[in-house]
Amino acid sequence: MQRFHLHLVSDATGETLSSVVKAALVQFEGFDAMEHFHSMVRTPKQMELVLSAIQRTPGLVMFTLVDRGLRDQLEEGCRNLGILSIAVLDPVMDAFGRYLGAESLGRPGQQHEMNAEYFGRIEAMSFTMAHDDGLRTDDLHQADIILLGVSRTSKTPTGIYLANRGLKVANVPVVPGIPLPAELDGLKKPLIVALTLSPDRLVHIRRTRMRALSDLEDTAYADPEAVAEEITNARRMYLKRGWPIIDVTRRSIEETAAAIYNLYQRRQEELAAS
User: Fold this and answer.
1) Among 90, 75, 257, 52, which residue's Cα sits nearest to residue 169?
2) Closest-CA residue to 62 (of 8, 108, 122)
3) I need a surface site. Which of 47, 200, 214, 215 has the fewest CB within 10 A?
């Protein structure tokens, strides 16, 4: 692996930079970035410390800074050091400015303000955690999305990811021989989505889980034939009820959540049109 230094400079938390870097780095094999985070940089003195750190460990510099003075200070410092610096959000901000015919506010950390949207995400996260794995089925009508699936089909992490986008998510396990909650029948508001997985992949995940828990007694839980039958029966039930099915075998949590979010948006548009 070829290692290099990467300096991420932000006047806020640096989450935006981190996401951009992760998305970009996966496209380059054989390279390992030693990331240096410089967050909440909002004064010239703090920027001096950042430039000192960059001088000690030279490498690519990426930044999100809205203050013109701090940007100039960083860019000039990098030029003097012969180091490339990139303003990550500039193309996006320029495009918005041209399209909207307006200038940005120039205030750092606006996306993290504790406004109604922020508290909405907190409420969604609390709801999702309280309705994990079939808990509290008496108020499923309050959910935005309900996820169903047999054990180990990534219902919980997918729900948490969606909750971080402000959606109230409940997840209900599909267990052989146990009927689904009666509360699912007749629900109008929530989007119900079923998650499924290939039998081979599910067997592997369950066996790994059992080894981690030192639980090797429940052989049916990871038996290939039993698992295949469990998935087939669950899928037959989903189709019978007309619930959309998403196969998560080759999907990351983020990809699964994106597919569900698209279904949710289309449903909301259909409800609005009707």
Assistant:
1) 257
2) 8
3) 214
For residue 208 the two structure tokens come to: 């790994």
Tell me which CATH code domain 116-273 carries: 3.40.50
How many Cα atoms sit within 13 Å of 243 on the Cβ side? Answer: 27
Q: How far apart are CA 39 and CA 225, in angstroms?
A: 52
How far is the C-alpha of 245 from the C-alpha of 153, rounded, in Å? 12
- Provide the mean pLDDT of the chain: 89
36 contacts 5 by C-beta, under 8 angstroms:
yes
Residues in contact with 210: Cβ distance below 8 Å, sequence separation at least 6, in sequence order: 216, 218, 221, 222
CATH number of the structural domain 2-111: 3.40.50
Does the reported pTM lie above 0.85? Answer: no
Residues 16-26: pLDDT tens digits?
A: 888 888 888 88
Which residues of the chain form CATH 3.40.50?
2-111, 116-273
Q: Is the pLDDT at 109 greater than 70, yes or no?
A: no
Kindly report, residue by residue over 221-259, the tens digit of the pLDDT: 999 999 999 999 999 999 999 999 999 999 999 999 999
b/e string for 41-50 if b means 16 or more Cβ within 10 A? bbeeeebeeb
What's the distance, CA 145 to chain centroid? Answer: 16
